[in-house]
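Tip: read the tokens left to right.
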């Protein structure tokens, strides 16, 4: 209440003032009193004022008198019994700064004063507890806000590290329920490296390329190394320009694979298109790194263990190490993956084996050590990786890369296989500097990847209930009767298959049934129980899986035809419908958990 009896709002914070003499905060009950009249707070109890400092700012008289409000200079409130009467002495028990009420006696006034004093004590204790809670909540809130700001700043920093390229192809989703194919490209660009590793004007070609396939069930993965010197065709490639426009870079026939990147302004999307044309496997995403990535990532994981079967002193890569096991990082790690003249046959294929050993060891290091469980190391690795990589827009953020990493990390290291695309020396060259695709083994390997078949022994797949259909006697080719229908969507597939069966396999009693009523997803062979031996022979010739055999319930007439319907899984006459269950003999491969691999 103010001196005129009106209710007055007082901010609780204004009741606490700093006393420079005591160095502590004091409680000031009177909002208009100067700071030197504040009441020191001692354990939430109000101390008695000094009598010399307890002068009343207003005095009241009993009965109908005049109350003078000294808190407002020059203002008086006149009572009904008189005007302008001088103030009298303060009554016993009356609060300083508060006028007396008419008819109030000493006992009544004293009782009210005691009641108010008790109320102030309770309020003071409650106020202390409240302030403690406020400070505690405020401190906790400050910590939470600071942590949130820190995480946000870190997130923005990592996001800012990532370079992206809009390739116009690939998957827009980060994860999928099916297999995942990621094209890992190591470019030989020297730009920004201050001439340390050669020509800084080199725009960067696809020096190292690995197609990383992760199985649908995430139990295994296959990493296919594509030799940079393989002769192939590069398709037309639309590329995004800096101004937002799209430029079409014409394709080429019979050129080195490594020119699919950098040459004529080709971007990683051109390399993705070239890989699809070469292997029939569509990359979903790409990740590209330069020389610095090898140095920085190997250092971030604390070094990568490698093995040499002999002493190496390579003046070109500057690698000088005695035989045995070593842990390399930084410049030494880069020298290791660049070495080729001092190992194997001294070419790119020998260098690929070194790179596979290095990558397998790096995977083991990351999974077996404390890199992924130590916040400090993990942050260092994340910062290094995001700075080192250029990726497609489909995975071009920290969140997307994190989700992808979580998805792919399910693969056990022992089920990751590194393999090299099968090649042979280029027959068009007298001095062999390039290679060409091995048309016998390479299609088999590509087929295994396309059909998600692991190159390692992962786990025994559930036995197909129809597997027994492939076991048993097989009829002679001359006795196989079949009518072929085309449901593959490939023009002329039925006739091509009939020609191949008759001319190459001796199935002279095969006929062309034309187009199937509708396109079929899978190739099927329908036959009667008494044609089972014919079905097994045809399945063996065409590489049909047991699931493709559909046996009827009634025997057929002696000269009746079986029905073969080609589906979307058909690629060409003579090419097995199903992929082989084992990798082709003689291909170069190594498992990621094989620690016994040593460069020779």
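Filled-in amino acids:
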């Amino acid at each position: 209440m103010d001196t005129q009896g009106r209710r007055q709002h007082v901010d609780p914070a204004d009741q606490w003032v700093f006393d420079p003499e005591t160095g502590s905060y004091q409680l000031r009950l009177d909002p208009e009193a100067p700071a030197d009249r504040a009441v020191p707070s001692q354990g939430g109890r109000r101390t008695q004022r000094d009598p010399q400092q307890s002068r009343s700012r207003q005095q009241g008289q009993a009965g109908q008198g005049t109350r003078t409000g000294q808190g407002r200079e020059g203002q008086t409130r006149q009572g009904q019994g008189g005007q302008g009467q001088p103030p009298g002495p303060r009554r016993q028990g009356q609060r300083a700064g508060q006028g007396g009420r008419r008819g109030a006696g000493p006992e009544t006034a004293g009782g009210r004063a005691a009641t108010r004093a008790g109320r102030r004590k309770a309020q003071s204790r409650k106020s202390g507890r409240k302030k403690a809670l406020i400070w505690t909540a405020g401190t906790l809130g400050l910590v939470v806000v600071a942590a949130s700001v820190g995480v946000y700043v870190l997130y923005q920093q990592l996001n800012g590290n990532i370079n992206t390229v809009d390739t116009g192809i690939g998957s827009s989703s980060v994860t999928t329920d099916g297999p995942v194919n990621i094209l890992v490209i190591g470019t030989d660009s020297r730009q920004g490296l201050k001439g340390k590793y050669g020509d800084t004007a080199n725009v960067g070609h696809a020096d190292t390329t690995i197609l990383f396939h992760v199985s649908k069930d995430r139990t295994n993965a296959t990493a296919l190394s594509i030799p940079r010197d393989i002769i192939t065709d590069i398709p037309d490639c639309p590329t995004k320009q800096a101004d937002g426009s799209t430029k079409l870079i014409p394709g080429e026939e019979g050129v080195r694979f490594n020119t699919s990147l950098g040459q004529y302004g080709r971007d990683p999307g051109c390399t993705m298109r070239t890989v699809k044309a070469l292997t029939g496997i569509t990359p979903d995403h790409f990740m590209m790194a330069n020389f610095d990535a090898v140095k920085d990532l190997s250092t971030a994981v604390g070094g990568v263990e490698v093995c040499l079967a002999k002493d190496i002193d390579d003046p070109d890569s500057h690698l000088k190490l005695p035989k045995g096991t070593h842990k390399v990082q930084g410049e030494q790690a880069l020298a290791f993956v660049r070495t080729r003249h001092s190992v194997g046959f001294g070419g790119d294929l020998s260098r690929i084996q070194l790179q596979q050993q290095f990558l397998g060891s790096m995977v083991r290091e990351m999974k077996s050590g404390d890199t992924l469980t130590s916040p400090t190391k993990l942050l260092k690795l994340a910062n290094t990786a995001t700075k080192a990589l250029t990726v497609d827009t489909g995975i071009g953020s920290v969140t997307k890369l994190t989700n992808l990493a979580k998805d792919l990390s399910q693969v056990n290291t022992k089920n990751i296989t590194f393999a090299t695309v099968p090649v042979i020396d280029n027959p068009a060259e007298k001095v062999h500097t390039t290679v060409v695709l091995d048309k016998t083994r390479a299609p088999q390997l590509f087929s295994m990847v396309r059909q998600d078949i692991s190159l390692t022994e992962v786990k025994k797949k559930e036995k197909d209930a129809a597997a027994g259909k492939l076991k048993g006697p097989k009829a002679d080719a001359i006795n196989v009767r079949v009518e072929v229908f085309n449901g593959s969507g490939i023009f002329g597939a039925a006739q091509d298959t009939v020609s191949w069966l008759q001319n190459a396999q001796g199935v002279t009693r095969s006929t062309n049934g034309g187009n199937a009523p509708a396109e079929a997803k899978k190739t099927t062979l329908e036959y009667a129980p008494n044609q089972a031996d014919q079905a097994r022979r045809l399945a063996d010739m065409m590489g049909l899986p047991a699931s493709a055999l559909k046996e009827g319930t009634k025997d057929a007439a002696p000269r009746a035809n079986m029905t073969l319907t080609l589906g979307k899984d058909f690629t060409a006459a003579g090419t097995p419908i199903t992929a082989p269950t084992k990798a082709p003999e003689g291909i170069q491969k190594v498992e990621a958990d094989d620690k016994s691999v040593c460069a020779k």
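Residues 1-8, 10-14, 35-107, 459-465 have pLDDT under 50 and may be disordered. The two ends are 96 Å apart (CA to CA).
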